[in-house]
Write a structure and sequence with these properties.
About 35% of the residues lie in helices and about 20% in strands. The chain folds into two domains: about 200 residues, no CATH class; about 100 residues, Leucine-rich Repeat Variant. The protein is an alpha+beta fold. The longest helix has 15 residues. α11 crosses α12, α12 runs parallel beside α14 and α13 runs antiparallel to α14. A hairpin with a 4-residue loop joins β6 and β7. About 35% of the residues are buried. It is built from 14 helices and 14 strands.
Length: about 400
């Protein structure tokens, strides 16, 4: 259910890609030769300018023009956004295996079974394109100091051609610094648009869903570059004429010697994944519209959950998010859920709250767990007993 592709830079394979034919199924990725072998003078040329500071997307575009010139002809969406230095499967982004592996974030649209709804992950997770032997602790410490200084952060650059996963083109040490600080990475994410539509209308698609504001008329006043306009009209003419298309040349894979150097990552990196969502968690946060509760009090969040069609799912997702990000509302919200009367409707929410409340070790929470151990409900009692599992 996948087809082999390769992402190249100046003809050098950066990574091996096997996307799925099914838009809601995950695909496979593997490392390539890496940036070190690509001999990309354009990337070297802009490196110092990228790291000198960030004053806005317009100035940044001017800086990275030499790199953009290497891309295929097309329409691109360039976003100043935040990414996570993890792979979406609870692993540090640079700790990927070299062989082909399925990634939950490598999908066009993540299907949430509980809600029967799709979420687009928007290229928020990162995949490395640089060999691990280029890791430099002094560079990481430099960025840790810079990120902690309060100054405008220099951006990383990533290319999103694979659903929720983006290839990191510049910023591996910045991503390491972000992981050590347990924060998202400020990143310029570049996404190529796909042209589709009809003879009279072109739709530019940057993700799984079609966005009407990118519909443009097929005429020379559309603003589409003439080369792309010509390419699109010729493709439509061939399609409607039912002209036979040549079979694609399938990529056969990279030789074994192309893989990255091996490295055992320090505990500070392997432990850092706790502070970032998995693909499943992030899809849930988008579906639950986390942005809607950002300025709510704990009491308002609690009420918001019970206004939803599936309160159990919303409760689980939002509690997890607040705890993981050390949100000041987290404990107060959890205390509201564990105070619910125990019945068949509330048990899932209480169970989720108990699991999250284990992150708080104090006399108040210990009393709550003692009460649940003796509450008479075996399911909740078994969860409560885990409070002391670490020996405290």
């Amino acid at each position: 259910m996948t087809y082999p592709m390769v992402m190249t830079l100046n003809g050098t394979p950066l990574m091996e890609m096997h996307p799925s034919y099914c838009p809601t199924c995950c695909g496979l990725l593997a490392t390539g030769y890496g940036l070190d072998n690509a001999k990309c003078n354009e990337l070297t040329e802009i490196s110092d300018k990228i790291n000198s500071g960030f004053t806005g997307v317009d100035d940044f575009l001017e800086t990275i023009k030499p790199l953009i010139g290497l891309f295929e002809d097309g329409v691109y969406l360039i976003r100043d956004t935040k990414t996570f230095p993890v792979d979406g499967d609870s692993h540090f982004f640079w700790a990927v295996p070299d062989e082909l592996k399925y990634y939950n974030s490598y999908t066009d649209a993540y299907y949430i079974t509980d809600l029967m709804r799709l979420s687009e992950l928007k290229g928020i997770f990162l995949y490395p394109t640089q060999s691990r032997d280029r890791y430099d602790e002094s560079r990481v410490k430099h960025y840790i100091d810079l990120f902690s200084s309060g100054k405008e952060k220099p951006r990383a650059i990533a290319y999103n051609a694979m659903g929720g996963m983006s290839a990191l083109l510049d910023g591996h040490h910045k991503a390491c610094a972000a992981a050590r600080l347990h924060v998202p990475l400020d990143t310029i994410v570049i996404t190529k648009g796909h042209l589709s539509g009809s003879k009279d209308n072109i739709n530019i698609q940057f993700g799984f869903y079609l966005d009407a504001k990118y519909d443009i008329a097929v005429d020379k006043t559309s603003g589409l570059p003439s080369k792309l306009y010509k390419q699109y009209t010729e493709q439509m003419a061939d399609l409607y004429a039912k002209k036979k298309q040549p079979s694609p040349v399938l990529y056969k894979g990279l030789p074994v010697e192309s893989r990255f150097a091996k490295r055992e990552w320090e505990k500070c990196y392997t432990d850092a994944v706790y502070y970032y969502p998995t693909a499943d968690q992030f899809a849930g946060e988008l579906a639950c519209d986390y942005s809607a509760i950002e300025n709510m009090s704990a009491e308002e969040v609690y009420d918001y959950v019970f206004q939803q069609e599936d309160p159990d799912y919303y409760a689980r997702v939002l509690m997890s998010r607040l705890v993981r990000t050390n949100d000041k509302r987290a404990k107060e919200l959890l205390m509201k859920f564990v105070a619910l009367p125990v019945n068949g409707y509330t048990k899932p929410q209480i169970a989720a709250a108990l699991r999250s409340l284990m992150n708080y070790k104090d006399d108040e929470t210990e009393k709550i767990f003692i009460d649940y151990v003796i509450c008479g409900d075996d399911y909740l009692a078994d969860i409560a007993k885990d409070y002391w599992a670490d020996g405290e």
